[in-house]
Amino acid sequence: MRSKEDETRMETVLTPQNTRDILARLADANRRFAAAYPGDRADRQPVHTVYGGAHLFRADVARRLGEVALRTLEENAPDPVTFARALALPGDETLARTVYARVVEKLRREPVEDFRIDFEDGYGHRTDAEEDAQAVADGEEVARGVREGLLPPYLGIRIKPLSSELHGRALRTLDLFVSTLLRGAGELPANFVVTIPKVVAAEQVAAVVEACELLERAHGLAAGALRLELMVEMTQSIIGPDGVVALPGLIAACRGRCRGAHFGTYDYTAGCSITATYQLPAHPACDFARHVMQVCLAGTGVTISDGATTVMPVGPHRAAPGVPLTPAQSDENRAAVHRAWKIHYDDVRMSLRNAYYQGWDLMPGQLPTRYAAVFAFFLESRAEAGARLRAFVEKAAQATLMGTIFDDAATGQGLLNFFLRGLNCGALTEDEALATGLTLDELRGRSFVKMLNARRARGAA
Q1: Which residues contact 25 (CB under 8 A, 6 or more apart)?
Q2: Whole-angstrom Cα distance, residue 212 to residue 179?
């Protein structure tokens, strides 16, 4: 039987000499993994993207949409109880009043988080002269918005597809718009992005990347200043002709420019030959595509967005000049709006449950229910998430005192992200976030591990 002294004298097989190549290859693989999966970005992700036809865009679009959204809310749900009933909002009257008040405040302060000037489906096919003029006009409007501080926090342009019929038109619109904007403002808006629709090949993405490089050099922009978003709305964006998952290759073709991937519910379901009646966000085909997106993009820093609800909160009756609606017509209008609101609210809640924290909105009447769904989602879970986060911080502190390692930082980071998202969109107040026991600096640091290390360093000092 070997003694402890014999065991300490035992020679090992693995030495620095014979493992040098093994460790070098491992280090290289780890570096490549870290580059491919840097983790979530530290900046804010908007809770929605509002799409609007390019022909309708004005620099003050966010303010105007907010005013219409407020009128829609006041006309169809003038009080918290009516709004809560329309949405079947869970919880008590306190939650209903809190959600309603925060929705109204949001619509007054920041009604639109992200807006996309749409030269695709929302604009349609026009003559080249018309689209040229519109691209210039919209570039001038965005430049005015930059100068006067009118734009929403996130803004972008959706060009036409890079198909054989439209690729020239798509790149010309991009050039006219960006060049006009930069001549008028001297800089891009904050968080500006170019959205590429109906992507089916990496070469389409590469063409836009090369066009962006030419525009950046011509206008003196920093390399990579023009960021991209990909529309995942074709089946070929999920599985390519070779049977391989296509999305990673499309992201790679962006060469570091890709900020987000947006799911397009209706083009995707149409591509699956699903009839119009059943082209719904809850269709299993959409679940499959969204989950492929999640698996492909988790940890890459590329954010994901769900699609739109196309049932619009609009009543069937319109008042003629000088002739008001009858009480019955007003009731029918309100009932129609409430039905559409409930559908939109449920779709947004489904997205949130599936960790899709962003989605599309198509008109101002959907803004109240977008924010109601998001705010209720965070408010309902705030107490439980806060208690769990406090417990995780305490557990980590105890592990540090005992000299052991706290190995569940990923869950702690997820809980921290919950409060960061809630704060960013206005669902939660600073006081509600601080009830977790964290400081504002710790919250804004956005890293659970760094927070623990800082606390450990202070404790050791």
Answers
A1: none
A2: 11
